[in-house]
Amino acid sequence: MKKNMIQLIILGGAIVVLVLFLVFNNINSINYKLPELSKVGKEEITRFTVTGPSGTMELVKDSDNNWKINPQGYPAAKNTIDTMVKEIAELTLTELVASGEEVFPRYNLDDANKVTITAYNGEKEVRKYEVGKSATSQHTFVKLMDDQNVYRAKGDFRYTFDKKIADIRDKTVFNFNKDDINSIETVFEGRTHTVLKYVEKDTSAEPEKDKDGNEIEKTKTVWRDSTTKEEIDPKFANDTLDALYNLNCIDYLENPPQEYFNKEYFRIALKGPKDYTLTVYDKIPEKEDFPTESAGNPYKFTLPAWRINNLTKLVTDMLDKKPASK
Known about the structure:
By secondary structure, this protein is of the alpha+beta class.
């Protein structure tokens, strides 16, 4: 009997302690107020740094509102930077998760894993925080500076910032309006060939008249061999421009050996209000990439074999075909 009484007293004491813990913990949770972050507009951010496991990079907006990666001065990919700036400006804390330096490794907020973001307006620091691992597909663990607390923040943005310089470089090779191009010159397998665009009267179209009874002249666009003036199948020009007008490279070559650029494999030049030239060299040994140069681009880069093969096939198919019927 006495033993049962002691057990009941112990159990009752434990229940009281548990209830008190839950009550006070709940009170603390209710009374805790998340830090109020200062508002930062996207347009206010003119520079920011990202420091993490992959190193440090600085992004700077120039007078034309284009972003560059310093100190190299590489153009940065607009969509990538827009996403980064949006996440910085719209940082929103949703919940206190834990506190104390000992818990930082659990959330990838220790020195070896955290990504530190510092944003500026001119020389003024407007936001600084540390990014840990993703909490869920909709949240990320973060820590504010001079704050030992770990918070959930709205959005899954760890991957947005945990990048290398190569990941955010602008890989655009060409970006033009296809309608602006009026000449395509190709050099492949020892043969140089040029086709020119003409806008001519369409004599095959049904005649039409305007409200005053005047005949409306209808025109058509044709591509012709620059030497023979024979009309060629428009598929060559259309498919070639489709392949090039918004061309991106695979990656840039850092300090490539000169031997990569000793033997030209294929060249194509487009002319219009602005000219575009792509020079492709023999495939890199043991790789499926072609080292390439583009007029106006100071950086050498690579293009995939399938893309170059598609372009050269368009050339050979066009040269092997008879002229389009008139």
